[in-house]
Amino acid sequence: MDILFTGLLLGGTYALIALGLNLQYGMARVINLANGETLVAGGFGAYWFFTAQQVPPLLTVFLVAPLAFALNWLIYVVVLRPLVKRAKSRGRIEVDMILTTFGLSFVAVGLMLALFGGDYFSYSYLARPITLIGETYALNRVTAFLGAALLCVALWLWLYHSRTGMSVRAISVSPESAGLVGIDVPRLAALAFALGGAITAMGGALVSMFLTLDASTGVIFTLKALIIVIMGGVGDIRGTIVAALLLGVLETFVATVIDPGLTLASAYLLFILILLLRPQGLFGRSRT
Amino acid sequence: MTRPILKWTLAAAVAFAASSVMADTLKIGAVGPKTGPLAGGAVVTYWPNVQLWAHDVNARGGLKVGDKTYTIEIFEYDDQTNPAQTIAAVQRLATQDKADFILPPYSTGLNLAAAPIYDRYGYPQITSTATSDQVEKLSGQFPNLYITLGSASGIVNGLVDTMKGLRDAGTLGNTIAMVNVADAFGIELAEAARPAFKEAGFEIVYDTSYPLGTQDLSPVMKGAKDAKPSAFIAFSYPPDTFGLTEQAIIEDLDVDVFFTAVATAFPAYAGRFGAAAEGVMGIGGVNADDPAFQEYAARHKDVTGNAPDYWASAMVYSTFQIYEQAIEGAGTIDKAAVAEYIKSHDFDTVIGKIAWDEHNNNPAYWTVGQWQGGVFRGVASTGRDGAVKPIVKDGWK
Predict the structure, then answer these.
(1) What is the per-residue pLDDT across B247-263, written as a single tens digit (0 to 9) for each?
(2) CATH number at residue A91
(3) Is A83 exposed, middle or buried (0-12, 13-18, 19+ CB in 10 A)?
(4) Across B221-314, where does the E strand assignment appear?
(5) Can you give the C-alpha Rg of chain A in angstroms?
(6) Average pLDDT, whole number, for chain B?
(7) Residue B13 confidence class, pLDDT cut points 50, 70, 90
């Protein structure tokens, strides 16, 4: 029971890390390797507002989101859209996007170093125990989990029960056909990308309550997010959520019952198994 | 159109002429992480000291070498915490920038990676952030490599002795939970600690490692707590030092000794945990009451805007002082002559006197410190003055 709860809490953290990337990769077709930097920037926002202005991170989430949304919109329109227009095939887009966002991640690290310095952003918020069914958990982790759950539900409602959401799913299935039925593909792709960035930054603000970040830790989160998105199935947020929770529970199980040294190995083993048995991911559609 | 350009050219020419009359410049290389996994530590411990040292030397007019005066100019390279980049940067400094001297890199691994290059080009390498148990072998291989921060076994012995003292006084039990980060640093210390604790009669009731970058340390802390130890020892790196401490507070881990490694001595540690940090032990330490250290800490804060840490910061600055004193003492900027001077002299630095043993090793260093009254004070060393008595950890409130 304790393992399940701790694992679900960790899974919530992973969902926060990976949800935004799924929108960007699945819907806007940008495999964004600067995802981790967006997360770190969100975490820095929370740190700065908390230490300098005494604004609690739970409020900062709402300040960080529109900022990240606007910034990611700009990045998409200025840097990425010309590449989409120029490309002749989907494969070409992916290669260009990988190279461009890889470059952007270095730019982001450099900018953050110049703006924030290379020191750890470390603060203490809601670092209190909370007792659930006889076991103690960190209140900040429980809070982040609730935040993740809210985000997931909101995102799911939007994608599956609104007209814009349906259009976004349509461009994820086939941008060409979506254009034929009157969907403004370039605008919606930009929207999906910007929204993905906003969600990642919100996730960053939430996880910074208990993770110690610095300007160059982003790449760790990018890798984790990529694994989760690919395990869950590109373009399906249900897959990302399930994969994140699965990974959290598995890592906690291995750490508690077998050995904490084997958590990484078990995570990659799961990844390999899923790739072998369901290459399209848990919820993915096989490409024709 | 032409007049402003002319004016600027003239100004530049005057400035150039003035500077060449007043002082020559000495090119000093500095290579360390500004990005990558160790950047967070280097930005606290290493880079501010490079800035402070250059500021201090130039503020007093520069280095007086014979009848000449040299101001120093720093050439900085980011090695991205990647040994291949450290090597490339040192090589570039030696061959293209023609640096007169190159300050040591940051961390054990990066220093050892670059040692052959320093050796090949004849640069003295007085390390300040490297710990090694193989000084004898190293000094035979690289005659101009110096170790100042101590060895894994020295640090472990300091910790074991401190805990033995507390146990003999009746304030500490016999059981230990020990965890380490699964990389060279953590593994080396844990391997040195296992037999040392056993020999001292301690019983290790929980012993595990976790991968670098683990995002949830609560299973580790829960496992340790279930073993009901009287001491918790972690050979940890900065993010996990913070993570383990936070989990200990949340689980209300009731131990008499709580020890974490790198970053425990950072001002940010007390900044984050406040009163809960009281009584936490960590690797390193300084003589916080020494006026030389206090004066250094104040200058560090003035010039760089941040306080130094309570362990390696002062050691980093001290090794820069050794370069400074050796260049002036040798009266030449010839590398071989300066290297000879370093080998054959003792140096007065902000951490006190540094005198080499026969293996180019500084035998007197701090091993264990403890947060007491908001200051991280040295409680054990291998021959430094000013150690205070250790106290037992009294809860997390």
Answers:
(1) 999 999 999 999 999 99
(2) 1.10.3470
(3) middle
(4) 231-235, 257-260, 281-283
(5) 19
(6) 91
(7) low
- Domains of chain B, each with CATH number or no CATH: 2-151+290-366 (3.40.50.2300), 152-286+367-381 (3.40.50.2300)
For B171-219, write each residue's pLDDT tens digit. 999 999 999 998 878 888 999 999 999 999 999 999 999 988 788 899 9
Question: CA B297 to CA B287: how far, in whole Å?
Answer: 12
Is there a contact between B313 and B49 (Cβ–Cβ < 8 Å)?
A: yes
Q: Which of A84-88, A221-225, B84-88, B320-324 has the lowest mean pLDDT?
A: A84-88
Flag whether residue B220 sits within 8 Å of chain A, measured between CB atoms.
yes
Q: Tell me how close the Cα of A113 comes to any Cα of chain B, in angstroms.
A: 8
Q: How far is CA B172 from CA B124, B256, B390, in A?
A: 45, 6, 12
- CB-based contact (8 Å) between A136 and chain B? yes
| Contact partners, residue A114, CB within 8 Å, separation at least 6 | none
- Helix and strand numbers (H, E) in chain B are 14, 15
Domain residues for the domain of A107 are 2-277
Residue B39 forms contact with A (CB below 8 Å) = yes
- ipTM, two decimals, is 0.84
Task: Tell me if B316 sits within 8 A of B309, measured CB to CB.
Answer: no
Q: Does any domain span residue A29? A: yes
Q: Looking at the DSSP assignment, which residues form a beta bridge with residue B179?
A: B208, B234
Among chain A residues, the shortest Cα distance to B47 is held by: A118
Residue-wise pLDDT tens digits, A90-137: 788 888 999 999 999 999 999 998 888 778 888 888 888 888 888 889
In a domain, A282, yes or no: no
Query: CA angle B122-B326-B106, nearest 5°?
Result: 60
Residue A1: CB atoms within 10 A of its CB come to 9
Is residue B167 within 8 Å of B173, Cβ to Cβ? yes
In the predicted structure, residue B236 carries a pLDDT above the cut 90: yes
Residue A283 tokens, joined = 């919820």
Q: How many angstroms separate the CA atoms of B55 and B89, rounded? A: 23
- Say yes or no for a CB contact (<8 Å) between A118 and B34: yes
| Contact yes or no for B180/B155 (Cβ under 8 A) | no
Q: Is residue A147 domain-resident?
A: yes
Closest by CA to B125, choosing from B133, B134, B116, is B116
pLDDT at B7: 52
**How many structural domains comprise chain A?**
1
For residue A108, the chain B residue with the least C-alpha distance is B35
Residue A33 has pLDDT above 90, yes or no: yes
Three-class DSSP category at B278: coil
Q: Is residue A153 part of a domain?
A: yes
Measured between CB atoms, does A13 come within 8 Å of chain B? Answer: yes
Closest to A31 in 3D by CA, of A83, A115, A74, A93 = A93
Amino acid at residue number B256 = D
End-to-end CA distance of chain A: 42
By C-alpha distance, which of B244, B273, B247 is closest to A136? B247
Check CB contact of A72 with chain B, cutoff 8 Å: no
Distance CA B219, CA B148 (A): 36
The contacts of residue A2 (CB under 8 Å, 6+ apart) are A135, A256, B222
